[in-house]
TrEMBL record:
InterPro entries: DinB/YfiT-like, Maleyloyr_isom, MDMPI_metal-binding. This is Maleylpyruvate isomerase family mycothiol-dependent enzyme. It comes from Streptomyces iakyrus. Coiled coil: none annotated. It comes from the Bacteria. The lineage of its organism: Bacteria, Bacillati, Actinomycetota, Actinomycetes, Kitasatosporales.
Length: 226
């Protein structure tokens, strides 16, 4: 796969929704083929949450976005726990059904939010990777959505003035520039694959991933959720 070295900072409003629908088409069939006990597996990236909890959180968040319901405290840990509790009596299939609808319906709302919700789309895609990893499925934090995910990540880190990094990725033909120093700090350097870079930027475990190099910056500085 290829993408330009410097992803343009001009926002593509369709990109977050595209990322979600790409992942929907891959993840939902996988979930429908899993046994009920698989939904009770723990998710390492989300301590205390099971696969079902992560899916319920994602389906609730995307439904909320699609319906434009943003009450006070929305997306806080307390709000997330309430969303999961509200679905405690649902079947696993009902949770997956809501997730499927939300991954398709949230795109237009995110597109019209002017960038304010773009990070949420990236976060839901990352949670899909969390679920894949918990289920022992390949493709966690990668797959067909990776180019859009990397482009979103690069733009978001630059908009936030995050620590600068030049990434030489196995998945891309040209280096990817993330973060922005304003000339105050030389960029760090990453050499490795795209899914590992996503893991570093989202605080996910990197045990057992393909070998990578990171210089000029500490892994904890890259975490956009830290």
């Amino acid at each position: 796969m290829t993408t330009p070295a410097d992803v343009p900072d001009v926002r593509d409003p369709e990109q977050p929704g595209r990322l979600l629908t790409i992942e929907r088409d891959a993840l939902i069939p996988l979930l429908r083929d899993r046994a009920g006990e698989d939904f009770a597996l723990p998710v390492a990236a989300c301590p205390g949450w099971t696969v079902r909890d992560v899916l319920a959180h994602c389906s609730a968040a995307l439904t909320r976005v699609a319906e434009g319901r943003f009450e006070e405290g929305v997306f806080s840990p307390e709000s997330n726990d309430r969303d999961i509790a509200d679905r405690a009596d649902w079947s696993d299939a009902q949770v997956v059904d809501e997730l499927e609808r939300g991954m398709g319906a949230a795109g237009p709302a995110i597109a019209g939010a002017g960038g304010r919700l773009d990070g949420l789309a990236l976060g839901e895609w990352v949670h899909a990777g969390d679920v894949r990893e918990a289920l022992g499925e390949p493709g966690a934090y990668g797959g067909a959505g990776l180019p859009d995910a990397l482009a979103l990540l690069a733009r978001i880190t630059r908009e936030r003035g995050h620590v600068p990094l030049h990434a030489d990725l196995d998945d891309l033909d040209e280096p990817l520039r993330l973060g922005e120093s304003g000339g105050e700090r030389p960029p760090g350097r990453f050499i490795g694959d795209g899914p590992t870079l996503v893991r570093l930027y989202t605080g996910r475990p990197v045990d057992g991933v393909p070998a990578f190099e990171l210089a000029g910056v500490e892994a904890k500085e890259l975490n956009i959720y830290g």
